[in-house]
């Protein structure tokens, strides 16, 4: 199957990064979001990111940005996805919202079109069960910042076919990324481990064991991490952390996934990290 046009659902931080990555790899992109304002903001951010990247590499910056953007068309409707050869969904970690999206796009997209579920915790087999194409459903866990990451967590659900995995590995290779295949389980590998780590770091701050700065410094200086867990939480978005922990807790019924009270309080206060300008740090 030739993949030339990719549908990207959701124009938030991850969605726009996915759209940018595909457009820079010379795919045609259909970027869909319910908000035109969000779409406009995504295009503006992509333009800035491409310009910065181009200037760092000494390229013709303006031309590069406009060329990339020319490959992205936007819509507040799902109908244009009828032209897509491959779809990546990036909506919020809420099962009711995701289910409604898949029920709609399953009726619009051609048979055989692969749906990549960009999720950190929702089971892929559950998503597949609400479509008429379960063999073409798999997880594609892109991480932020998408254009800079060299690997993607690829999740094989109960019904996912080997052909779907092979095609997806090829698509990711075209993006300059390696697909690392794991089996379907809530949180998969990355988030099952990462969310507990971030949550425990938040508990340490909540219990006044250490400041956010010192917690992160320990991880950077002692373990060689590029970012500490709280810096990582701010980058991902604390609302996304909370949603992921909630899904993990509901899936496993294990208290180790219980969100820290401070995390819930910060999300309630809309202190979400980088995207809101304030989280554990000020941006």
Automatic annotation (TrEMBL):
Keywords annotated in UniProt: Oxidoreductase
Top enzyme class: oxidoreductase
EC number: 1.1.1.35
Family matches, as SUPFAM superfamilies: 6-phosphogluconate dehydrogenase C-terminal domain-like (SSF48179), NAD(P)-binding Rossmann-fold domains (SSF51735)
Lineage top rank: taxon: Bacteria
Transmembrane segments: none
Domain 3-hydroxyacyl-CoA dehydrogenase C-terminal: 187-283
Single annotated GO MF: (3S)-3-hydroxyacyl-CoA dehydrogenase (NAD+) activity
Pathway: Lipid metabolism; butanoate metabolism
Domain 3-hydroxyacyl-CoA dehydrogenase NAD binding, first and last residues per copy: 5-184
Family recorded in the similarity comment: Belongs to the 3-hydroxyacyl-CoA dehydrogenase family.
Protein name (Swiss-Prot/TrEMBL): 3-hydroxyacyl-CoA dehydrogenase family protein
């Amino acid at each position: 199957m030739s993949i030339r046009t990719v549908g990207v659902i959701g124009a938030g931080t991850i969605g726009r990064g996915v759209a940018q990555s595909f457009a820079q790899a010379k795919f045609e992109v259909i970027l869909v979001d319910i908000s035109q304002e969000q779409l406009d903001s995504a295009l503006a951010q992509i333009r800035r990111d491409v310009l910065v990247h181009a200037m760092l590499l000494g390229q013709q910056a303006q031309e590069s940005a406009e060329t990339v953007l020319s490959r992205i068309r936007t819509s507040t409707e799902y109908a244009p996805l009828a032209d897509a050869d491959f779809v990546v969904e990036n909506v919020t970690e809420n099962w009711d919202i995701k289910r409604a999206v898949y029920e709609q796009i399953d009726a619009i997209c051609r048979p055989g079109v692969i749906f990549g579920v960009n999720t950190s915790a929702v089971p892929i087999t559950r998503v597949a069960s609400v479509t008429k194409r379960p063999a073409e459903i798999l997880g594609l866990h892109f991480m932020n910042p998408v254009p800079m990451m060299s690997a993607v967590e690829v999740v094989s659900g109960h019904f996912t076919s080997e052909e779907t995995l092979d095609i997806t590995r090829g698509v990711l290779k075209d993006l300059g990324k390696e697909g690392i295949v794991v089996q379907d389980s809530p949180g998969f590998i990355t988030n099952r481990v990462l969310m507990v780590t971030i949550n425990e770091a938040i508990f340490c701050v909540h219990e006044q064991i250490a400041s956010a700065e010192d917690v992160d410094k320990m991880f950077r200086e002692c373990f060689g991490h590029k970012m500490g867990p709280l810096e990582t939480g701010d980058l991902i978005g604390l609302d996304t952390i909370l949603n992921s922990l909630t899904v993990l807790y509901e899936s496993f019924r294990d208290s180790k996934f219980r969100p820290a009270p401070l995390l819930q309080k910060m999300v309630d206060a809309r202190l979400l990290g980088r995207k809101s300008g304030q989280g554990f740090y000020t941006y």
